[in-house]
Amino acid sequence: MERILRIGMGFWESRTLLSAVELGVFTVLGHRQLTAEQLRRELGLHPRSTRDFLDALVAMDMLRRTDDRYANTADTATYLDSTGSEYIGGFLEMAAARLYPFWGGLTEALRSGQPQNEAKYGGDFFTTLYRDPRRLYDFQRAMTGLTLPSAHPIAEQFPWHRWKTVADIGTAQGALLRTVLETNPHLYGIGYDLPPVEPIFADYSAPVEDRISFQPGDFFEDDLPEADVLVFGHILHDWDLPTKRMLLEKAYRALPEGGAVLVYESFIDDDRRSNLPGLLMSLNMLIETPGGFDYTAADLRTWLADTGFQEPVTEHLAGPESMVWAVK
Asked: Active-site residue numbers?
Protein backbone atom coordinates (compact mmCIF):
# COMPACT_ATOMS: atom_id res chain seq x y z
CA MET A 1 0.00 0.00 0.00
CA GLU A 2 2.70 2.46 1.00
CA ARG A 3 4.57 1.99 -2.30
CA ILE A 4 1.39 2.49 -4.32
CA LEU A 5 0.60 5.74 -2.53
CA ARG A 6 4.21 6.95 -2.78
CA ILE A 7 4.22 6.48 -6.54
CA GLY A 8 0.73 7.91 -6.97
CA MET A 9 1.60 11.03 -5.02
CA GLY A 10 5.12 11.33 -6.44
CA PHE A 11 4.20 14.59 -8.13
CA TRP A 12 4.29 16.30 -4.71
CA GLU A 13 8.02 15.67 -4.43
CA SER A 14 8.66 16.38 -8.11
CA ARG A 15 6.83 19.69 -8.05
CA THR A 16 8.67 20.79 -4.91
CA LEU A 17 12.05 20.29 -6.61
CA LEU A 18 10.89 21.92 -9.84
CA SER A 19 9.64 24.96 -7.93
CA ALA A 20 12.96 25.17 -6.10
CA VAL A 21 14.77 25.25 -9.43
CA GLU A 22 12.35 27.85 -10.84
CA LEU A 23 12.79 30.04 -7.77
CA GLY A 24 16.58 29.76 -7.93
CA VAL A 25 16.97 28.32 -4.42
CA PHE A 26 20.22 26.51 -5.19
CA THR A 27 21.71 29.42 -7.13
CA VAL A 28 20.83 31.93 -4.42
CA LEU A 29 22.45 29.72 -1.80
CA GLY A 30 25.57 29.07 -3.87
CA HIS A 31 28.28 28.30 -1.31
CA ARG A 32 26.59 30.27 1.46
CA GLN A 33 24.65 29.19 4.52
CA LEU A 34 21.48 31.22 5.08
CA THR A 35 18.63 31.21 7.56
CA ALA A 36 15.07 30.59 6.46
CA GLU A 37 14.31 34.28 6.88
CA GLN A 38 17.30 35.33 4.79
CA LEU A 39 16.30 32.91 2.06
CA ARG A 40 12.69 34.01 2.25
CA ARG A 41 13.67 37.62 1.65
CA GLU A 42 16.10 36.89 -1.18
CA LEU A 43 13.67 34.56 -2.95
CA GLY A 44 10.63 36.77 -2.40
CA LEU A 45 8.58 34.08 -0.66
CA HIS A 46 5.51 34.48 1.53
CA PRO A 47 6.28 33.68 5.19
CA ARG A 48 3.46 31.15 5.53
CA SER A 49 5.20 28.03 4.15
CA THR A 50 8.83 28.99 3.70
CA ARG A 51 10.11 26.69 6.45
CA ASP A 52 7.95 23.79 5.29
CA PHE A 53 9.26 24.24 1.74
CA LEU A 54 12.90 24.42 2.79
CA ASP A 55 12.63 21.56 5.28
CA ALA A 56 10.93 19.43 2.62
CA LEU A 57 14.02 20.00 0.46
CA VAL A 58 16.16 18.93 3.44
CA ALA A 59 14.09 15.74 3.80
CA MET A 60 14.55 15.14 0.05
CA ASP A 61 18.35 15.50 0.46
CA MET A 62 18.32 18.53 -1.82
CA LEU A 63 19.45 20.86 0.98
CA ARG A 64 21.23 20.37 4.29
CA ARG A 65 20.46 22.28 7.48
CA THR A 66 22.85 22.97 10.34
CA ASP A 67 21.14 24.57 13.33
CA ASP A 68 18.97 27.19 11.63
CA ARG A 69 21.04 27.65 8.46
CA TYR A 70 20.43 26.03 5.08
CA ALA A 71 23.06 25.11 2.51
CA ASN A 72 23.37 23.20 -0.74
CA THR A 73 24.39 19.57 -0.74
CA ALA A 74 27.44 18.58 -2.78
CA ASP A 75 25.18 17.50 -5.65
CA THR A 76 22.92 20.55 -5.72
CA ALA A 77 25.94 22.86 -5.48
CA THR A 78 27.44 21.15 -8.53
CA TYR A 79 24.40 20.51 -10.70
CA LEU A 80 21.67 22.99 -9.68
CA ASP A 81 23.58 26.24 -9.15
CA SER A 82 23.05 27.97 -12.50
CA THR A 83 26.41 29.78 -12.25
CA GLY A 84 28.31 26.47 -12.49
CA SER A 85 29.62 24.77 -15.63
CA GLU A 86 27.88 21.47 -14.74
CA TYR A 87 24.40 22.99 -14.36
CA ILE A 88 21.68 20.53 -15.42
CA GLY A 89 18.78 22.58 -14.10
CA GLY A 90 17.93 23.88 -17.57
CA PHE A 91 16.24 20.56 -18.28
CA LEU A 92 14.32 20.80 -15.00
CA GLU A 93 13.31 24.38 -15.83
CA MET A 94 11.83 23.10 -19.09
CA ALA A 95 10.16 20.26 -17.20
CA ALA A 96 8.55 22.75 -14.84
CA ALA A 97 7.40 25.17 -17.53
CA ARG A 98 6.35 22.73 -20.25
CA LEU A 99 6.42 19.03 -19.45
CA TYR A 100 4.73 19.15 -16.05
CA PRO A 101 1.45 20.64 -17.33
CA PHE A 102 1.53 18.66 -20.60
CA TRP A 103 1.82 15.36 -18.74
CA GLY A 104 -1.60 16.09 -17.28
CA GLY A 105 -2.85 14.97 -20.70
CA LEU A 106 -1.23 11.52 -20.60
CA THR A 107 -4.54 9.66 -20.27
CA GLU A 108 -5.90 11.47 -23.31
CA ALA A 109 -2.67 10.79 -25.22
CA LEU A 110 -2.87 7.09 -24.45
CA ARG A 111 -6.39 7.00 -25.86
CA SER A 112 -5.79 9.21 -28.89
CA GLY A 113 -2.13 8.62 -29.73
CA GLN A 114 -1.82 12.38 -30.24
CA PRO A 115 0.65 14.89 -28.72
CA GLN A 116 -0.45 16.95 -25.74
CA ASN A 117 1.90 19.92 -26.20
CA GLU A 118 1.50 23.00 -28.42
CA ALA A 119 0.41 20.74 -31.29
CA LYS A 120 -2.79 19.94 -29.43
CA TYR A 121 -4.03 23.46 -30.16
CA GLY A 122 -2.79 23.70 -33.73
CA GLY A 123 0.76 24.86 -33.03
CA ASP A 124 4.06 23.16 -33.73
CA PHE A 125 6.65 23.00 -30.96
CA PHE A 126 9.81 23.14 -33.08
CA THR A 127 8.48 25.83 -35.44
CA THR A 128 7.42 28.01 -32.53
CA LEU A 129 10.65 27.31 -30.67
CA TYR A 130 13.06 28.34 -33.41
CA ARG A 131 11.18 31.59 -34.02
CA ASP A 132 11.53 32.78 -30.42
CA PRO A 133 15.15 33.51 -29.39
CA ARG A 134 14.42 33.34 -25.66
CA ARG A 135 12.53 30.04 -25.83
CA LEU A 136 15.19 28.64 -28.15
CA TYR A 137 17.95 29.55 -25.67
CA ASP A 138 16.00 27.98 -22.80
CA PHE A 139 15.47 24.82 -24.83
CA GLN A 140 19.14 24.59 -25.81
CA ARG A 141 20.13 24.98 -22.17
CA ALA A 142 17.65 22.24 -21.28
CA MET A 143 19.32 19.94 -23.81
CA THR A 144 22.68 20.71 -22.19
CA GLY A 145 21.24 19.58 -18.87
CA LEU A 146 20.07 16.35 -20.49
CA THR A 147 23.40 15.80 -22.26
CA LEU A 148 26.07 16.50 -19.62
CA PRO A 149 25.63 13.31 -17.53
CA SER A 150 26.42 11.23 -20.63
CA ALA A 151 28.96 13.58 -22.19
CA HIS A 152 31.69 12.87 -19.67
CA PRO A 153 31.66 9.06 -19.96
CA ILE A 154 31.37 9.32 -23.75
CA ALA A 155 34.46 11.54 -23.78
CA GLU A 156 36.37 8.96 -21.75
CA GLN A 157 34.98 5.57 -22.85
CA PHE A 158 34.63 5.88 -26.62
CA PRO A 159 37.87 5.04 -28.53
CA TRP A 160 38.39 8.54 -29.88
CA HIS A 161 42.08 7.83 -30.55
CA ARG A 162 40.99 5.95 -33.68
CA TRP A 163 39.53 9.06 -35.35
CA LYS A 164 40.31 12.75 -35.89
CA THR A 165 36.96 14.47 -36.53
CA VAL A 166 33.50 14.28 -34.97
CA ALA A 167 30.17 15.90 -35.89
CA ASP A 168 27.31 16.17 -33.41
CA ILE A 169 23.94 16.07 -35.19
CA GLY A 170 21.39 18.32 -33.47
CA THR A 171 24.18 19.74 -31.35
CA ALA A 172 22.17 22.40 -29.40
CA GLN A 173 24.65 24.39 -27.28
CA GLY A 174 27.39 21.91 -28.08
CA ALA A 175 27.75 20.36 -24.63
CA LEU A 176 28.73 16.96 -26.00
CA LEU A 177 31.33 18.37 -28.38
CA ARG A 178 32.87 20.74 -25.86
CA THR A 179 33.22 17.94 -23.31
CA VAL A 180 34.68 15.49 -25.83
CA LEU A 181 37.14 18.03 -27.24
CA GLU A 182 38.30 19.15 -23.81
CA THR A 183 39.09 15.52 -22.94
CA ASN A 184 40.58 14.59 -26.35
CA PRO A 185 42.78 17.46 -27.59
CA HIS A 186 43.58 15.79 -30.93
CA LEU A 187 39.95 15.98 -32.13
CA TYR A 188 38.22 18.57 -34.29
CA GLY A 189 34.45 18.96 -33.84
CA ILE A 190 31.53 20.13 -35.98
CA GLY A 191 28.21 21.16 -34.48
CA TYR A 192 25.30 20.59 -36.86
CA ASP A 193 21.93 22.24 -36.20
CA LEU A 194 19.46 24.73 -37.65
CA PRO A 195 20.89 28.22 -38.35
CA PRO A 196 19.29 30.07 -35.36
CA VAL A 197 21.31 27.89 -32.98
CA GLU A 198 24.71 29.18 -34.16
CA PRO A 199 25.18 32.14 -31.75
CA ILE A 200 24.11 30.00 -28.78
CA PHE A 201 26.55 27.30 -29.88
CA ALA A 202 29.39 29.78 -30.43
CA ASP A 203 29.04 31.23 -26.94
CA TYR A 204 28.99 27.86 -25.16
CA SER A 205 31.82 26.32 -27.20
CA ALA A 206 34.16 29.31 -26.83
CA PRO A 207 36.65 27.39 -24.60
CA VAL A 208 37.47 25.09 -27.57
CA GLU A 209 36.77 27.56 -30.37
CA ASP A 210 40.06 26.81 -32.16
CA ARG A 211 39.00 23.16 -32.70
CA ILE A 212 35.28 23.51 -33.35
CA SER A 213 32.94 24.95 -35.96
CA PHE A 214 29.23 25.22 -36.59
CA GLN A 215 27.62 23.87 -39.76
CA PRO A 216 24.03 25.05 -40.28
CA GLY A 217 21.68 22.55 -41.83
CA ASP A 218 18.42 20.67 -41.74
CA PHE A 219 18.92 16.92 -41.63
CA PHE A 220 15.65 16.39 -43.48
CA GLU A 221 16.74 18.53 -46.44
CA ASP A 222 20.54 18.67 -46.38
CA ASP A 223 23.47 16.28 -46.34
CA LEU A 224 25.05 15.47 -43.00
CA PRO A 225 28.56 16.81 -42.27
CA GLU A 226 31.62 14.92 -43.41
CA ALA A 227 33.43 13.60 -40.34
CA ASP A 228 35.00 10.40 -39.04
CA VAL A 229 32.36 10.02 -36.32
CA LEU A 230 28.72 11.12 -36.42
CA VAL A 231 26.86 11.43 -33.12
CA PHE A 232 23.09 11.32 -32.55
CA GLY A 233 22.30 12.17 -28.94
CA HIS A 234 18.62 12.22 -27.89
CA ILE A 235 17.71 12.75 -31.55
CA LEU A 236 16.41 9.49 -33.00
CA HIS A 237 13.73 9.09 -30.33
CA ASP A 238 11.99 12.24 -31.62
CA TRP A 239 10.89 10.49 -34.81
CA ASP A 240 8.93 7.54 -36.17
CA LEU A 241 10.69 4.41 -37.41
CA PRO A 242 10.97 5.38 -41.12
CA THR A 243 12.62 8.67 -40.08
CA LYS A 244 14.96 6.90 -37.67
CA ARG A 245 16.06 4.58 -40.49
CA MET A 246 16.41 7.51 -42.92
CA LEU A 247 18.77 9.34 -40.56
CA LEU A 248 20.90 6.24 -40.06
CA GLU A 249 21.07 5.76 -43.83
CA LYS A 250 22.14 9.39 -44.26
CA ALA A 251 24.84 8.85 -41.65
CA TYR A 252 26.08 5.74 -43.49
CA ARG A 253 26.35 7.66 -46.77
CA ALA A 254 28.16 10.60 -45.12
CA LEU A 255 30.77 8.55 -43.26
CA PRO A 256 34.06 7.39 -44.77
CA GLU A 257 34.96 3.71 -44.75
CA GLY A 258 36.05 2.89 -41.21
CA GLY A 259 34.04 5.80 -39.78
CA ALA A 260 31.62 5.33 -36.92
CA VAL A 261 28.13 6.32 -35.85
CA LEU A 262 27.44 6.82 -32.13
CA VAL A 263 23.92 6.98 -30.69
CA TYR A 264 23.18 7.68 -27.04
CA GLU A 265 19.76 7.67 -25.38
CA SER A 266 17.95 6.41 -22.31
CA PHE A 267 17.56 3.08 -24.11
CA ILE A 268 14.77 0.83 -22.92
CA ASP A 269 16.36 -2.36 -21.59
CA ASP A 270 16.16 -5.27 -24.01
CA ASP A 271 13.69 -7.16 -21.76
CA ARG A 272 11.57 -4.00 -21.35
CA ARG A 273 11.33 -4.54 -17.59
CA SER A 274 13.87 -2.49 -15.67
CA ASN A 275 14.93 0.82 -17.24
CA LEU A 276 11.93 2.84 -16.12
CA PRO A 277 13.41 6.21 -17.22
CA GLY A 278 13.70 4.87 -20.78
CA LEU A 279 10.09 3.75 -20.79
CA LEU A 280 8.91 7.05 -19.29
CA MET A 281 10.96 8.98 -21.85
CA SER A 282 9.11 7.08 -24.55
CA LEU A 283 5.82 8.20 -23.00
CA ASN A 284 7.23 11.71 -23.05
CA MET A 285 7.73 11.32 -26.81
CA LEU A 286 4.03 10.45 -27.01
CA ILE A 287 3.26 13.72 -25.21
CA GLU A 288 5.67 15.77 -27.34
CA THR A 289 5.76 14.30 -30.87
CA PRO A 290 3.46 12.88 -33.56
CA GLY A 291 5.44 9.64 -33.99
CA GLY A 292 8.49 9.56 -31.75
CA PHE A 293 9.29 6.70 -29.40
CA ASP A 294 12.21 5.29 -27.45
CA TYR A 295 13.62 1.87 -28.18
CA THR A 296 15.99 -0.83 -26.99
CA ALA A 297 19.67 -1.15 -27.81
CA ALA A 298 18.76 -4.43 -29.53
CA ASP A 299 16.32 -2.55 -31.78
CA LEU A 300 19.05 -0.08 -32.71
CA ARG A 301 21.61 -2.81 -33.40
CA THR A 302 19.12 -4.37 -35.85
CA TRP A 303 18.54 -1.05 -37.62
CA LEU A 304 22.29 -0.42 -37.81
CA ALA A 305 22.91 -3.85 -39.29
CA ASP A 306 20.09 -3.33 -41.81
CA THR A 307 21.76 -0.06 -42.83
CA GLY A 308 25.14 -1.72 -43.37
CA PHE A 309 27.01 -0.86 -40.17
CA GLN A 310 29.15 -3.54 -38.55
CA GLU A 311 30.49 -4.49 -35.12
CA PRO A 312 27.87 -2.71 -32.96
CA VAL A 313 29.00 -2.08 -29.39
CA THR A 314 26.69 -1.23 -26.46
CA GLU A 315 28.11 0.46 -23.36
CA HIS A 316 26.47 1.89 -20.26
CA LEU A 317 27.18 5.57 -19.63
CA ALA A 318 25.52 7.06 -16.55
CA GLY A 319 22.18 6.55 -14.83
CA PRO A 320 19.65 5.24 -17.37
CA GLU A 321 21.76 6.20 -20.40
CA SER A 322 23.86 4.04 -22.72
CA MET A 323 25.54 4.39 -26.09
CA VAL A 324 25.56 2.14 -29.12
CA TRP A 325 28.21 2.65 -31.76
CA ALA A 326 29.08 0.83 -34.96
CA VAL A 327 31.55 1.10 -37.83
CA LYS A 328 31.01 1.51 -41.57
From this structure: 237
